[in-house]
Each structure stands twice: as C-alpha cells, then as structure tokens.
C-alpha cells in the first residue's frame, strides 16, 4: 500500500496549487456571484444592467464585480463613461457550463 500511496501523492498538485483551486471554487460558492456570472454568460453588461436584471443595488453588484475581477473571473472594458463586464475567458464559461450540467443531472 505504501507504494500506491506514494504514487498517488506524487501525482497530486502541490499544496499551494490546491489552495488556489479551493479559493477559485469559493467564488462560485456565493449565489449572488453565480447569478452575476450567469448574466455575463448571456452577454456583456454594465453594472447598472446587471443590477436591474438581478433586482439588486448598483453598490452591491459593484462590490461583487470587484471580488470577481480580483479572482480573474470577469473583466471590465471601458466604453465611454461606462464599463462593460464580461467573463474573463473561455475557462470561466466552461466552469459554469460544467457546473450547471452537473447540478442538473437527473432532473
């Protein structure tokens, strides 16, 4: 068994990588952030549009967007006086798609 355990240990990502992965998944653990990401899956939106769709205050949405930007899940692009938000890259789209597929299995 020791040989098998050692073999498995060598194949695991290092502790720092696993901690970063856990932090990433924490971002998806908040329903408000998941809703914002869901909106941005549909199309790029500014903070006011997201707030209107979700029935939230602009302030609350702005706070969550800051958190999501810090986690590199969303990005903002300046368009005149406003910023349009989008998912940061295709990986975020895939995480959302796979997560939704998983939770909808068997429904």
Describe it.
- The protein is α+β, with helices and mostly antiparallel strands and 107 residues long.
- The protein is built from 6 helices and 3 strands; from the N terminus they run H-H-H-E-H-H-E-E-H.
- The protein has a 3-stranded antiparallel beta sheet.
- The longest helix has 15 residues.
- The model has no long low-confidence stretch (mean pLDDT 95).
Distinctive features:
single chain, 107 residues, alpha+beta, three-stranded antiparallel sheet
Percent helix: 55-70%
As residue ranges, the low-confidence spans are none
Strand percent estimate? 5-15%
Order of helices and strands: HHHEHHEEH
- Global geometry: elongated
Q: Largest sheet at a glance? A: 3 strands, antiparallel
Beta strand count: 3
Tell me the radius of gyration. 17 Å
Structural class, by secondary structure, is alpha+beta
Mean pLDDT: 95
Sequence of strands across the biggest β-sheet = 1-3-2
Alpha plus pi helix count: 6
N→C terminal distance: 40 Å
Reconstruct the topology from this structure.
Elements: H1 2-11, H2 15-27, H3 31-42, E1 45-46, H4 47-54, H5 58-70, E2 74-79, E3 82-87, H6 90-104
Antiparallel strand pairs: 1-3, 2-3
Concise synopsis of the structure shown:
With 107 residues, this protein is α+β, with helices and mostly antiparallel strands. The protein is 66% helix and 13% strand.
